[in-house]
Design goal:
Length: 360
């Protein structure tokens, strides 16, 4: 599809951009342009790169009332030769389609999703940080734009893509976090929207996150809705448990039961762990097994993973029934090795033998 380009008449100055790229933080600054593609009468219209700016929405726009909103997150990385590449965009495109289906929304063709990334980087490439630890975070999203208060799938949608230079997701950098497994709130039940990346899931998580903070923890850990026993996710990130150490180590992540987000970092780590000679599996871990495993030393490391923060070690757990430390409370060697392997591939320092990198 041919995209039209309307240049921003007031882009950030080179000085301002340099200042932002010096310490971008996460999700605080946005590039000069965005992509918009509208869906109506059963078809997607033309793609457009337009100046970044406010959306004008009728107050009765359906997305504002019934929550038909889905989104994605992926990053562009500066490569050693100065070019720009992204990581497994096809996987995000596929998940975006699955999320749309679950929310009864229009499905954006996967090629159009990937093309939109290319079109935005073509005009905003100077926003891709050159600092190795930083990246340009893409936030593709879709909202229902039909106007009306009837509860039904909308007939019109807007797909938008914005981009934000990104440093470390957590203000402390790669520091172990403390977690609160919630037995009061749950994030998803069988048949719900847990495996879709939709705004409502994140809205529903905020009170539990606030409760975790009130208990003195950094993040909430979600347990299954049925028994409140099986570990599922940490906030918006997937989890991994490391059993043992050295070459015989085994890493286990909760199985995708339909109530967890099928993370692309999670999926990539199953492969990378195998490349490094570890056993990597999907399985079921209860809070009791987590605690006993840490107490006996069988579980040596636990970490969360996602696009935004990559790998975040978990240092301690506090629950209604007790507190314990994970390993020695510091980032574990396997967690950090996997982090380096993954970011090494993304930044072009290590061989991309799985063909995950996609030039933009
Ligand atoms: C992740 O990348 O881990 C996320 O879930 C993104 C978050 C900012 C919503």
């Amino acid at each position: 599809m041919a995209f039209t380009v309307e240049r921003n008449p007031n882009p950030a100055t080179a000085e301002r951009r340099a200042e932002i790229l010096q310490a971008p933080g996460f999700g605080r600054f946005f590039t000069d342009h965005m992509v918009r593609i509208d869906y109506r009468d059963g078809a997607w219209g033309d793609g457009a790169v337009v100046p970044y700016g406010p959306l004008q929405l009728d107050p009765a726009t359906m997305a504002l009332h019934y929550g038909q909103e889905i989104f994605e997150g992926l990053k562009a990385y500066r490569q050693p030769d100065g070019s720009v590449a992204t990581f497994r965009p096809d996987a995000n495109a596929r998940r975006f389609v699955r999320s749309a289906r679950r929310l009864g929304m229009a499905e954006l063709p996967e090629e159009l999703f990937v093309q939109s990334l290319r079109e935005l980087v073509a005009v905003d490439s100077e926003w891709v940080p050159t600092n190795l630890a930083d990246s340009l975070y893409f936030r593709p999203f879709m909202i229902a734009t039909e106007i009306g208060l009837g509860v039904k799938p909308a007939s019109s949608y807007a797909y938008l893509l914005i981009a934000s230079p990104a440093g470390s997701y957590f203000a402390g950098g790669v520091q172990p976090v403390s977690v609160w497994p919630s037995t009061e709130y749950t994030s998803a039940a069988a048949g719900g929207t847990g495996e879709a990346k939709c705004a409502g899931n994140y809205a529903a998580s905020l009170v539990a996150q606030a409760q975790a903070a009130a208990k003195g923890c950094d993040q909430v850990v979600w347990l299954d809705a049925g028994e409140r026993r099986w570990v599922e996710e940490m906030g918006g990130m997937n989890l991994y448990f490391v059993y043992g150490s050295g070459p015989g180590a085994r890493i286990v992540t909760p199985s995708l039961t339909g109530t967890l987000l099928p993370g692309i970092t999670r999926d990539s780590l199953l492969t990378l762990a195998g490349d490094l000679g570890y056993t990597a599996e999907e399985g079921k871990i209860s809070t009791d097994e987590w605690r006993e495993g840490n107490e006996s030393g069988a579980i040596t490391e636990v970490f969360a993973c996602g696009t935004a923060a990559v790998i975040t070690p978990i240092g301690s757990v506090k629950s209604a029934t007790g507190e314990w430390t994970v390993g020695d409370g510091r980032p574990g060697p396997i967690s950090m090795q996997l982090r380096e392997q993954l970011t090494g591939i993304q930044t072009g320092k290590l061989d991309d033998k799985h063909g995950w990198m996609h030039p933009l």
